[in-house]
Amino acid sequence: MVIEQYPITTTPKYNFPHQSMDVTLPQQFIELSLHSLQSVHGQSFQLNQQPIQQINNRGEHPQTLTLRHDPILLEPTHQESIVAAVDTSTIKIAETTAGIVIAVRGANVWKQNKTYRYTRLGPFIFHVTEENKREVYNTLERAYFGYPYEHNHQGTPNLMQMPTRIASLLERWLQTMLSKTLDNALILFDGSLTSGTADTPTQRMKEILGAARKRGNIVLAFSKVTTLRVNGHLITDLLPEHKPPYLLEAAGLTLKPPMVLLGDVYVAKLTKGNLAFRLDIDREIPFEPRIEAVRRLLGNDLFTESYPETLRLAHILCTFTANEVLAMRHFVTRRYGLQIINRPDMHRLLFGPFGKGESYS
Fold it and tell me: Which contiguous run of DSSP H or E holds residue 307?
């Protein structure tokens, strides 16, 4: 397996992204992050290395959900196809007297001609406060999706929601870039195709899926965690005694408005082992082409416990390491004169060894 890194320009064998695509997002992120950090110059801050999970509370109500017992059997198709994936991550680096210091990063990974390549954007460091959160978010919305945040009818996010909101904006832009630059490819999303939340506006997701379909691409969305249950059991646990790879089709999933399900739901058991995943496939794709897309994925990508390697690499490449967090701390302290302070951990102070900290409260 070969992994190559390419800048956000033309690569030797494959134009990524296409020249007609707007690729100015990284510069905008840099400008906004530097502008936000200038407001914290000379202050003190409390270190807080805390990965921020992008929890998807989708409002799905699976009371009528059923899982078909007959598996859809799959045979790999070795027709050459590009497989591409996108993922983003965010981490809270520190707290200041006015807000929080966060970092955001995204990665696109694609496999072509048996070689993995990737583009990694970031990290982008932001100092987000109650005073600048609207400006930061609306500027990004307006610059890259054509309308400010207020037009989503969702109200401005609170301070603690801002890390995941900014990461989601970057992720949607990366997904848009893939959808508008690839042809006849398999595009892998992290998460489901449920829309209607503040992070996944329905119109935006429809535009991304529509752009992908126009160029012959098919979107496959893998969820690492699902809450969908049938008779009290997770759908990924209700696996028949059958040799993989196969799909189980789910039916009867109802959503509470304004939630909209833009994909049909399957359970994907693609390799031997104990794991299976929820797989959403763009519901505008007819049945035979969508099943053929999964067959092409099996024939063009590697898998670990039923999870595609391209998507796994996207997650790894956007995740922050401990050394990177130390480097970002060093950067903000030297560049902006921040002073590190160590406030007492109230849980440890009050409860001794029984105090597990804020992340456990």
Answer: strand 307-308
Rounded CA separation 306/315 (Å): 15
- Residue 216's alpha-carbon distances to 142, 180, 258, 262, in angstroms, are 28, 10, 29, 17
Segment 70-124, tens digit of pLDDT: 999 999 999 999 999 999 999 988 888 888 889 999 999 999 999 999 999 989 9
Is pTM beyond 0.85 here?
no
**Other CB atoms within 10 Å distance of the CB of residue 21:** 16
Determine, yes or no, domain membership for 359: no
Contact 296, 77 (CB under 8 A): yes
How many domains would you assign to the chain? 1
CA distance 102 to 218: 33
Pairing type for strands 83-96 and 186-190 reads parallel
Report the candidate in 70, 106, 123, 73 with the shortest Cα–Cα distance to residue 329.
123
- Domain membership of residue 96 (yes or no) is yes
Sign of CA dihedral 161, 163, 164, 167: positive
Instruction: Classify residue 349: in a domain, yes or no.
Output: no
Look up residue 88 and give its two tokens. 């983003």
Q: Is 360 part of any domain? A: no
Q: Which of 108, 56, 104 is nearest to 83 (CA)?
A: 108
Residue 134: which domain range?
Answer: 2-342
